Amino acid sequence: QVRLVESGGGSVQAGGSLRLSCTFSGRTFGNYGMGWFRQTPGKEREFVASITWSGGSTDYADSVKDRFTISREIFKNAMYLQMNNLKPEDTAVYYCSTGKAPTTARGSRPPQYKYDYWGQGTQVTVSS
After folding, report:
1. Which conformational region is residue 121 in: left (phi greater than 0), alpha (psi within -120 to 50 degrees), or beta?
2. Share of the chain above pLDDT 70, in %
3. Which positions ≥6 away from 54 have C-beta within 8 Å?
4. What is the DSSP letter of 109?
5. Contact 1/46 with Cβ under 8 angstroms?
6. What is the greatest pairwise CA distance in the chain?
7. Distances in Å between the alpha carbon of 7 and those of 72, 84, 105, 122, 128?
8. Overall average pLDDT of the 110-122 stretch
9. Are the C-beta atoms of 119 and 9 separated by less than 8 Å?
10. Which residues neighbour 18 within 8 Å (Cβ) at sequence distance 6 or greater?
């Protein structure tokens, strides 16, 4: 069973930065998609960024492009989300996720890639 644990959330003023971490276990090596998502009360969970585990190809939602950077450290089984120039609208619970299947040429962004395993989430609050 794949287990994911997020950390690094917190409260910050607009314009500030945070770095989220996601560590996981129960995964064998392969080109899986790894992603960050976020959700606010009353709204659907939305895609933030993704990375292919072995190839390192990245993809971002337009709302975070040029502000957020996704990365991974293979030998630490860890994934990160560096968030800069944070805005109040970035306030949400952030989740890391991965899928059961390896990625294909269609990439690691939903719905092309199906995410099956989720962490418990970490709260990010940005004040104006």
Report:
1. left
2. 98
3. 29, 30, 31, 74
4. S
5. no
6. 42
7. 14, 17, 30, 6, 23
8. 94
9. no
10. 8, 9, 10, 12, 83, 86, 124
56 sits in the region (left: phi over 0; alpha: psi -120 to 50; else beta) called left
Please tell me the distance from the alpha carbon of residue 7 to that of residue 79, in angstroms, as a whole number: 11
Cβ neighbours around 50 below 10 Å, total: 27
Secondary structure in 3-state letters for 21-59: EEEEECCCCCCEEEEEEEECCCCCCEEEEEEECCCCCEE
| Lookup: tokens for 41 | 């009360």
Q: Which two tokens stand for residue 94?
A: 């952030």
49-107: per-residue pLDDT in tens? 999 988 789 999 999 999 999 999 988 999 999 999 999 999 999 999 999 888 888 88
Distances in whole angstroms, Cα of residue 80 to Cα of each of 5, 13, 43: 11, 20, 24
The Cα 81–Cα 64 span in angstroms is 11
